[in-house]
Design a protein that fits this description.
Helices cover about 15% and strands about 40% of the residues. It has about 375 residues and is of the alpha+beta class.
Length: about 375
């Protein structure tokens, strides 16, 4: 195998696929990137057996062929190369010679025959989704995915295709984020799946604001085709909890709050919430909300924010990180906080199909 390629194109291709490489693997081949030189493109593929990703970049190919090279090492070498044109040749023993300017590297690879093949999606259900809808939906929900590995069904995003909508849900049991977007698909394609965190993170890296992506679903795998890149992943098996039953049906108060101002205020005040039982109090009364935090051995902070509120006074307390997470990932000027009482879940909504349920914290006055 022999080819010439620009350093920038090769580095860009490697950076798109290298995150999938497993650092803890008993199979050496899984630490490698599969490199296939064919036609006028170089195809780069990595997998950890749960998630696999493949992309291609333009190259001037003198001799077609395939090999696998240690992904992280290869990427580090390419990143540090001095010039823009790179010549790479691979011999019959899978030893790659990399020449760039006055620099030469030799790196030992493994034969491509051992590299695990991608699953077949020939008879899968197919959906065409606007990249911006997927990007927006994942941004609004992915921060609420559970990191508790004992509750594995929560270690991903519940993705539902029903009633002409794509619904994305993430929860860790203490908060829940949900975003919906309209999507056309045949009724026979209605289904619900759980896409694991690692695949979600990779899709977020790849997805843009223009054009469509193709999503295919088999019984146990999901496939994304985004631009020149294909990502496949195992789905999480199991039953996702009935998330709709934790969304309060009726609320007593709706408070309209400027999103950016609320985020900045909570960020400042939470500097004096304790690490152990981190909470900020929101006291609503007489057209303002007083946001406060105190830690007995450190001190206290309070700040007022003007809002329209003329009802009975109410005080709620939330984990500040949980309160700030949706505010950081929304782009609207205004959010609405729906309240029932001090001990019931609060709901953050916007003018659009998004909601965020946040459990209150018990605090002593």
């Amino acid at each position: 195998m022999k080819f010439r390629i620009s350093k920038e194109a090769l580095l860009d291709g490697l950076q798109k696929v290298q995150h999938v490489v497993s650092s803890r693997t008993t199979l050496p081949i899984l630490s490698n990137v599969l490199i296939v030189a064919k036609g006028d493109r170089l195809h780069l593929t990595t997998t950890d057996l749960d998630v696999g990703i493949t992309g291609s970049v333009l190259a001037s190919i003198e001799k077609e062929g395939a090999t696998t090279l240690p992904a992280k090492k290869f990427c580090n070498i390419v990143r540090e190369l001095p010039a823009s044109e790179v010549d790479i040749s691979v011999d019959g023993k899978n030893i790659a010679t990399i020449r760039c300017g006055a620099a030469t590297f030799k790196i030992n690879g493994l034969g491509e025959a051992e590299f695990p093949p991608f699953p077949d999606f020939a008879s899968a259900k197919e959906f065409k989704i606007l990249q911006n809808d997927m990007r927006d939906g994942l941004r609004k929900t992915s921060y609420a995915i559970s990191t508790d590995e004992t509750r594995y069904v929560l270690n991903g995003i519940y993705t539902s295709f029903r009633d002409g909508k794509m619904t994305l849900v993430a929860t860790d049991g203490r908060r829940l984020a949900m975003a919906e977007s309209d999507l056309e698909f045949p009724a026979s394609h209605e289904t619900d799946v759980i896409i694991p965190t690692k695949a979600v993170q990779e899709v977020q890296r790849l997805v843009g604001t223009e054009g469509e992506l193709t999503l295919r679903l088999s019984d146990s795998q999901v496939y994304f085709s985004i631009g020149d890149t294909i990502l496949v992943s195992k789905l999480i098996e199991g039953n996702y909890p009935n998330y709709r039953q934790v969304i309060p049906g009726n609320t007593n108060e709706r408070v309209e709050i400027p999103r950016e101002a609320l985020l900045e205020t909570v960020k400042r005040v939470s500097l004096l919430s304790s690490d152990k039982a981190s909470s900020v109090k929101l006291f609503f009364g007489d057209n303002k909300v007083e946001i406060s935090a105190n830690t007995p051995d450190v001190g206290e902070a309070r700040e007022d924010l003007l809002v329209k509120f003329e009802s009975k006074e109410i005080q709620v307390a939330y984990n500040p990180e949980f309160l700030m997470a949706p505010l950081r990932n929304l782009e609207t000027e205004t959010v609405y906080l729906d309240l029932i009482d001090e001990m019931s879940p609060g709901v953050i909504r916007i003018d659009g199909s998004f909601l965020y349920v946040i459990m209150p914290m018990r605090v002593t006055n």
